[in-house]
Design a protein that fits this description.
Order of helices and strands of chain A: EHE
Number of strands of chain A: 2
Helix content of chain A: 10-25%
Strand content of chain B: 15-25%
CATH architecture of one domain in chain B: 3-Layer(aba) Sandwich
Structural class of chain B: alpha/beta
Strand order of the largest sheet of chain A: 1-2
Number of helices of chain B: 17
Number of helices of chain A: 1
CATH topology of one domain in chain B: Peroxisomal Thiolase, Chain A, domain 1
Helix content of chain B: 25-40%
Strand content of chain A: 35-45%
Largest sheet of chain A: 2 strands, parallel
Number of strands of chain B: 14
Distance between the termini of chain B: 13 Å
Structural class of chain A: alpha+beta
Oligomer: heterodimer
Radius of gyration of chain B: 22 Å
Largest sheet of chain B: 10 strands, mixed
Shape of chain B: globular
Chain lengths: 41, 474
């Protein structure tokens, strides 16, 4: 169902890191076109 | 539990935490520079929301930072804190101070060894002459200052007035522009101030310091070695530590924790006997969230440069100290989820010493002032970190789920540090920690800081470092 849907994953230093979001979503069939972790403080 | 009387300790002789109030440098913060360039009309809005010195002194989180009120008391003050100034607040604190902008400009002149700064002569004689120290200050007329700025120097402003010019260090080198050198010199000047103030407080001659470690965040160096420079030795020189050498330790926000561990290790190994760990303020982070503050009709709260100095010595009886046997680093193989961080930086090192999460009376985490971060959507960072620790305690069966808030209240604290990167990351609690350990209010505290390595685009890894502090006789 998710095949081909493109995702941008933005993780957060004190929350969920970008690579973790990307891995979960790729496992669910999404295509992660960009992932990053940022620090907002 | 291992015998705490036999623990590997290094003493903390004293600390100093300083805030330098620089409202007229907010425009040179990274975010304001970019936004003001795109939308010059913002400058007028920004100017209206800048705080005066009296406001900055009376701001409750600043009074906590310099030691005049406790984090616990701050937590009991209803927000917004900026609307509830502390009565009779003073710029001198129990272990810190708040410095006014004019004094900072004078410190900047003093720290300048390359004639980068010229200040307007009338302003200097009116406002700063009394604060000038032994070094000469390069003075110029108004016309000369204006000419220098027209030729590429960065204007130094005090209120509405042009009071100085900050020149580039090289015509072509992007690492020696006026903007970069102002950041670097501000870090040097503020760190040197904290170190001088600490030495005065503990009544130690500056010549007795063996080694200075700087964990400031600035990249000092020219185009062939960007970030390669040794700011520590420049700070040591400026603070009069003639017999010291030094070096820099950088690890993003976790830098101060690593610096303390390295300094303590130099002492434990006998390489040095008196080590100062210092950090200057981060000018780039001024006004980082100013747009959300303007949107919320708040003062622009990121108008201070944070700095600190910590003096480490061999442990003495009854003195608070760092337990080197508790130090934990976040290894490459570990993940970077909040739970993993809590396991690596708190649970595992405590287990090594035969302790549990509930054996720590106080945790110091990322202690950013939530009043700065919440309006921009960045959340209450310390609370998030404390809830992670509490959740881990629940998972391990140490507390019941409905005791999580009690855990956070009893073992945590309100955030109170300005968003200065390395400054809020656990280390800022050290002054209050010494007070609480000396008074017996707490037996031990765990400091744990995180570093966002991914920001440099060299790795996706996060990082962290932690250690326990306690009293030698406990």
């Amino acid at each position: 169902m998710q095949k081909g849907r493109k995702i941008i994953a933005i993780g957060e230093r004190d929350g969920v890191p970008g690579p973790v979001i990307a891995e979960c979503l790729e496992g669910a069939g999404y295509e992660v076109v960009f992932q990053v972790t940022e620090c907002f403080v | 539990m291992t015998d705490p009387t036999r623990a590997l300790r290094v003493g903390i002789e004293g600390v100093w935490f300083s805030l330098t109030h620089v409202p007229d440098l907010v425009r040179y913060g990274s975010k304001p520079v970019r936004e003001l360039r795109a939308r010059p009309a913002l400058q007028a809005q920004l100017a209206k929301r800048l705080r005066g010195f009296a406001e900055a002194i009376a701001y409750a989180p600043h009074q906590v930072y310099i030691g005049n009120i406790t984090p616990e008391k701050l937590g009991a003050i209803e927000k917004p804190w900026y609307a509830r100034p502390i009565e009779n607040a003073t710029p001198e604190g129990r272990f810190g101070d708040v410095i006014e902008q004019d004094a900072f400009y004078t410190q900047l002149c003093s720290a300048d060894r390359f004639d980068l700064v010229t200040v307007e002569e009338h302003w200097f004689h009116e406002r700063a002459a009394g604060q000038a120290n032994r070094r000469r200050v390069r003075l110029g007329s108004s016309a000369e200052i204006e000419l220098r700025c027209a030729e590429g120097a960065l204007p130094l402003i005090s209120g509405e007035r042009l009071i100085g010019a900050f020149e580039p260090g090289h015509e072509e080198d992007a690492n020696l522009t006026a903007e970069v050198l102002l950041e670097n010199l501000a870090a040097k000047a503020t760190a040197a101030h904290s170190l001088r103030a600490l030495l005065a407080r503990v009544k130690l001659d500056s010549g007795e310091i063996d080694y200075v470690i700087s964990c400031s965040e600035e990249a000092v160096g020219d185009r062939y070695n960007r970030g390669g420079g040794n700011l520590a030795k420049a700070i040591a020189e400026e603070a009069g530590c003639e017999n010291a050498s030094g070096s820099d330790i950088k690890a993003f926000c976790a830098g101060p924790m690593y610096a303390i561990v390295h300094g303590a290790s130099l002492i434990q190994s006998g390489v040095a006997r008196k080590v100062a760990v210092v950090a200057g303020g981060s000018l780039a982070k001024l006004g980082m969230k100013f747009e959300s503050h303007l949107r919320n009709n708040m003062p622009v709260l990121e108008d201070v440069l944070g700095s600190f100095a910590v003096l480490l010595t061999p442990a003495k009886p009854a003195q608070p100290g760092i337990r080197l046997d508790s130090v934990a680093f976040h290894p490459v193989r570990a993940g970077s989820s909040p739970q993993v961080m809590a396991e690596v930086l708190a649970e595992k090192p405590l287990a090594r010493l035969g302790m549990k999460l509930t054996d720590v009376d106080r945790y110091a985490v990322e202690l950013h002032n939530p009043e700065i971060t919440v309006p921009s959507g960045s959340g209450d960072v310390p609370r998030t970190n404390y809830l992670t620790l509490a959740a881990l305690a629940v998972m391990r069966g140490l507390i019941h789920k409905n005791q999580m808030e009690d855990f956070v209240r009893a073992r945590g604290m309100s955030g109170y540090a300005p968003t200065q990167g390395h400054i809020p990351s656990a280390i800022v609690y050290l002054g209050h920690a010494l007070d609480e350990l000396r008074s017996g209010k707490i037996r031990r505290a765990l400091l744990m800081a995180k570093g966002s390595l991914f920001l440099g685009r060299m790795t996706q890894l996060s990082d962290g470092c932690s250690f326990l502090i306690d009293r030698h006789d406990v």
